[in-house]
Fold this protein.
Amino acid sequence: MKNLYLSIMLFFSFFSYSQNYVGLYVNNFKDIIGNQVAETELLSYAQSNGFNYLILYNLTYIHNNIFNIDNINTSQPLANFISNAKTNYGILQVAAVGEKNSSFDKIKVYNGFYPSNPEKRFDVFNLEFEYWSDYKTQPGGYYCTTYLQPNGFTCSRTGAFNFYNTQLMMMYSYGLENNIIAETYIGYVDQNEADQIAQNTHRILIHYYRQSDVYNNGDSIYQYPSSQPDRVNMLALSNTVTIMPIFSARPNHMYNWLLEPNPLTQPYDTWQNGQNGFNNQTGTWANNVSLDGYVWYRYSDLLQVSQTLNMENFTTVEEPFIYLNGKTKKLIFRNISENAHLAIFNLLGQKVIGFKIKNNQNLSSFKKGIYIVKIILENNKIYTKKIILK
């Protein structure tokens, strides 16, 4: 009876979509896992910006080079990270990214360590295989030499899609049996591909990689790309689908737009409610679509945007501000008198250094960790700031 109750609870936890997920692709996770400072920075950023779904890269690299994921003892850093994310930072789902079905074999073993501890488990398997990319699928391309030729598929879009679809079907079947969401990311599709993808996945992420949320004529980002028919329409034409649009903060996408600044929530609102956006679609197929939120790609670019905006905002406020330049390791001060006294403490409350502010203080000799900067202003008011040194 206990196992039946657990299965029911897991089913509703994983498959009853609340339509409010805000996803974050976490690149360079290999440099974050096991580093308490970097983990805290990631989770604090996610919490502060409303992200409740993390999509993790580099898990194969981590298994091969850092620790074995399929060992309950060595994989504790991963279990601790996921548990901390879900318990303390409001993360509802965590995904593993893979290029083929067997990419998730180690994750399946890892999840098996925690049958009654969903707070430590992966909830989603995310298949990322850009079968539409000619330079990857054509002879000599990465997909051609790594996946297609060794498995008897032609080095073409057709061959790449057939390989991808077989992986998706296996992943989907496993997900149905083990309460795992089978998810995939797509860029460009035709109708035949869209039908098969819709039938073999639980949730589909669709990229909308533009430099702003509207076109020059005022149309919503939903209309991207103009080079092919509506992808949501194709997916939902004969199938019920759950989708999440992806927006990109890469420098050639929305990086500069975010620096204007514009809010992270705006593209999704425009995608839905803008001119000729999703909510303006009148076809009967639109009734087959469930929206599960949206996703941003990727963490490192978004973090840089946030740090840049914080630094620029120093010139527009009158309150005292301190900024740590992550590259130079220097503390930069604004609106603080040179005669103010500053001290830096570790998390144990021990004073590390004290000085008067005359030049920007270099912390390159400090150990990595979290510190508290305390300033006593000329009017005897006290200002504190937490900094993370990586």
About this structure: The chain is about 35% helix and 20% strand. The CA atoms of residues 47 and 89 lie 6 Å apart. The chain has two domains: 2-309, 317-389. Residues 2-309 form a domain with the TIM Barrel fold (CATH 3.20.20).
